[in-house]
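Let us work through a complete example step by step.
Step 1: write down the sequence.
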Amino acid sequence: TRAGITLWNAGIRHILIGSLHNAKAVMEKAVRLANETKKNITIVCAGRESGNIVALDDVYTAGTLIKYGVEIAKSLNRNPILKDSAKISKHLLSVYPNTISSFKDSGSGETMRRINTLEDINICSEENISTLAPMLDFNGNDGIVVQKSINKVVYK
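Step 2: predict the structure and record it as tokens.
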């Protein structure tokens, strides 16, 4: 949520919420939106400690989003140009045999082990189980985060 608020306050108005659960759907929407508006795509990871620490699971997820984004862009006859951070994220996919092993190796995985909730890693590792690609909107000055596509309050 902090990342979304920061982007909104910086004047960004097309803020999609992506995860492994909706990776393909969110990148389909992002690439098509970027193509229509002639804008670039930036993936912002939430991180840990209020965004001050890089999180391995976030970077791995960003790599997965980038993988889908590249595939979708190429299907539209677009040739994406990746910055170094995107190349690093995408390369991380080849370091681990699968998502679960990368998540277990992350700080979040360590936390899951410590609080005995390793099953959460399996749940978070599920890819493309949702076709939703939510876009954030902020409803006036009352600090409410709204998911645009269904106009539902998701944070207050």
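Step 3: interpret the result. Strands lie at 136-138, 145-147, 152-155.
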